[in-house]
Amino acid sequence: MAEVKVKKETNLSDPVEVENRIKELCHQFPQGITDQVIQNDMPHLEPQQRAMAINKLLSLGQLDLLRNSAGLLYRLKDSQSTSKMKGSDNQEKLVYQIIEDAGNKGIWSRDIRFKSNLPLTEINKILKNLESKKLIKAVKSVAASKKKVYMLYNLQPDRSVTGGAWYSDQDFESEFVEVLNQQCFKFLQSKAEAARDNKQSPMVQRNSSFATSHEVWKYICELGISKVDLSMDDIETILNTLIYDGKVEMTVIAAKEGTVGSVDGQMKLYRGVNTIIQPTGLVKTPCGLCPVFDDCHEGGEISPSNCIYMSEWLDF
Amino acid sequence: MTAQEVRLCGLLLREHFGEVVEKVGTHLLKCGAQNLRTIIHETGLSVDLVKKSLCVLVQHGASTFSSGRKGPGSPTEYHASCDRILRILRYPRYIYTAKTLYGDTGELIIEELLQRGHTTMSSTVKTVADRLTQNMAEGLTMDYSEVSSTFSKLVETHFLQRCPPLPRVGNKDSSAPSETPAIPGTPAAPVNTAPPTPESFPECYKVPSVTLIGRGKRQLASEDGEEQRSAKRTHGDEGIYWQVNFERFHLHFRDQTIISAVANKLDQTSSEIVRTMLRMSEVTTSPMATCTKPLSANEIFRSLPPSYNILRPILDQYLTLLVDDPMEFVGKAGESGGGMFVVNLHRALANLARATLESVVQERFGSRSARIFRLLLRKRHLEQKQVEDFAMIPAKEAKDMLYTLLSQNLVQLQEIPKTPDYAPSRTFYLYTVNQLPTARMLLQSCYKTVANLVERRLFETKESKRLLEKSQRIEAILASLQVSGAEPEQLTEVEEMITAPEKQQLDTLRLHINKLDSAENQVDETIFLLESYINSTNASS
């Protein structure tokens, strides 16, 4: 006896049936369905019934209402998130949605207010609520220390908010930067010394005293002084500070694509250098470093004749 | 002429020539060109004193005179030159350079000329020979011809030059310059606004044929009669006066600084190559040129000192390295002859001046402020946030350092408004460093520093004047006793007149004065660098 498949005629006047049909359609088109699609599927459905069904699904939180250039879109909501929002009312859902949209850059409470048009007290209450439910978290921005941005709980804050590798808990880690600075410098200096002791032809000497940024990066990683992973760009910022200290110079050479460490067909080479002059004569005198230099004149309170800095310096 | 420069000139004049000359000199510096009557009236000194001071100043080239402003008939006006007086600070360096290049003879020649201002060759040679003879062992004397040959060598390398003959202006011819009527018809023609430079005369570096035969004489009382007779002999070079050519010394100092900078940055061999290049261009390059004349690699190879026998390919490699260096000391000007190379003088001076500024900031404010300063020099204009990011300094400290540098005027602020009303919230504020104005400012600080050091030295001397006089008297007594042959007990008795703490005081005083002196010389090196840079920039722009 063959099973006869009986197609159950959907009773279209039953609202539940309508809702189920709509949900099935949403499953079929995961990116969302328009009103037009629903109408095509159920042509004899009246607009009123359709609207009622859609509203019911929306209020149950099973459907998402979106808007695109063509019109309104209905999308099936993720069942997991539906369970999360149980017990929250519409306003909270709205705020949650706004925060979700902000991605990993986070959003400021004032911006939430603008987008949702809710009064400030309401916003604060909702935010506290959501935070206690562990759905969102507040992250202090490194740019303005008083500003707090909100983002979803499980998201990693973006680099611009936390400041990247140099900031830990909103504090600029100057000792860390200093240590890296000195390590890089020592590496380049020892390389230059080794090249100088080599005593080969000058071209070879100079070329061997160069180190690519990739080499320096590898050396620092192997040294293991950093708890955070540093990228090559981070190392290049450190090397730039060494250039501004006048201890290192940089050249850019063209490199074959594919050689290790080349970026866009170029490689940056760094080399330790010495300063071209000794500390200048002016700073060897007390006047060169005097904090009250502008107040000093003959016959005044501060004058060369009774200068205490000079007396100390002369007796040194 | 800034106030600091005038103050320093006054102190230098007082130390070297006395208070009267100082008064006249500073008056001329402050008030510009003036004629004799006005000077007498405004300084309140007597006519004689003013005339003598002007003589002294003109003799040393610190003052020039020219026809009055109202035309050829008006009284001559005297004009003091600040630069020339500031050169007095550099005399020790000139003498030391002459010593390294030409030995003791050269040193004494330069010293004589610096002391006397303008002299003839014969008198210089005689005096120097006498001085050298005094310091030599018994029985030896210095021949005039040796001194003459050193003198000629100094003239050939342009370290000495003839004083320019001045056109006859009325009857007032106060000492120095020669009497040879140089330009015919000058008194009738209008006077040039600028005094003729020594180099505009064709015979500037020509050594006159002088008959100088003799040897240096020791200073003995019995020689008096003979000396008077020999002084009346003429030597064929009357009226030809010589002076020290400061510009040539300055070029020499500049070359030295460039060579030592190359040695610091690269290595010894590179600096030798640069030294050779500079030596070859000594006479072909004008003082204000931005770079030397192109030299081919072949020429450089031939002119290298024989002790440095490096191979030709190695030389080429060194030259390529010098050209590639970011400091740009040497540039390539063409490919003929194995490569034509020039030394970029202006750029080298700019780099040296920049290094000086950076070192001042570093010593005064610390290495992090120096980092910010170098960053701004490189990147020209930056916002405060960008400064913090590039320099990797915490925001609060960076702000503090920038504001300190701004208050000292080493860093400037440039406002770029977004709206026509310069509302602070809608304006960009960019920090920037301008090298030339900062160098000028630092130069003025150097002048003030040197003036402070000189004043302190005078003060210390004045404090211990009594002690110094006492020690001088005792030394005189000792010397006279020794000459007249006294017993040791008398000598010790006299020596004991100075007590031990006084002796210690004298020693500390001597130490202080030496320290202050050497500090003046060190600051003068900075002054030289900054002045060269500023002059070179003015000449090239």
Automatic annotation (TrEMBL), chain A:
GO terms for cellular component: cytoplasm; nucleoplasm; RNA polymerase III complex. Its main location: nucleus. Coiled coil: none annotated. Keywords: DNA-directed RNA polymerase, Nucleus, Transcription. The keyword Nucleus applies. It is found in: Nucleus. One of its GO terms (biological process) is transcription by RNA polymerase III. InterPro entries: RNA_pol_Rpc34 (IPR007832), RNA_pol_Rpc34-like (IPR016049), WH-like_DNA-bd_sf (IPR036388), WH_DNA-bd_sf (IPR036390). DNA-dependent RNA polymerase catalyzes the transcription of DNA into RNA using the four ribonucleoside triphosphates as substrates. Specific peripheric component of RNA polymerase III which synthesizes small RNAs, such as 5S rRNA and tRNAs. Belongs to the eukaryotic RPC34/RPC39 RNA polymerase subunit family. Component of the RNA polymerase III complex consisting of 17 subunits: a ten-subunit horseshoe-shaped catalytic core composed of POLR3A/RPC1, POLR3B/RPC2, POLR1C/RPAC1, POLR1D/RPAC2, POLR3K/RPC10, POLR2E/RPABC1, POLR2F/RPABC2, POLR2H/RPABC3, POLR2K/RPABC4 and POLR2L/RPABC5; a mobile stalk composed of two subunits POLR3H/RPC8 and CRCP/RPC9, protruding from the core and functioning primarily in transcription initiation; and additional subunits homologous to general transcription factors of the RNA polymerase II machinery, POLR3C/RPC3-POLR3F/RPC6-POLR3G/RPC7 heterotrimer required for transcription initiation and POLR3D/RPC4-POLR3E/RPC5 heterodimer involved in both transcription initiation and termination. This is DNA-directed RNA polymerase III subunit RPC6.
Automatic annotation (TrEMBL), chain B:
One of its GO terms (molecular function) is single-stranded DNA binding. GO terms for cellular component: RNA polymerase III complex. Residues 149-352 form the RNA polymerase III Rpc82 C -terminal domain. Residues 357-433 form the DNA-directed RNA polymerase III subunit RPC3 winged-helix domain. GO terms for biological process: DNA-templated transcription. Component of the RNA polymerase III (Pol III) complex consisting of 17 subunits. This is DNA-directed RNA polymerase III subunit RPC3. It comes from Maylandia zebra. The lineage of its organism: Eukaryota, Metazoa, Chordata, Craniata, Vertebrata.
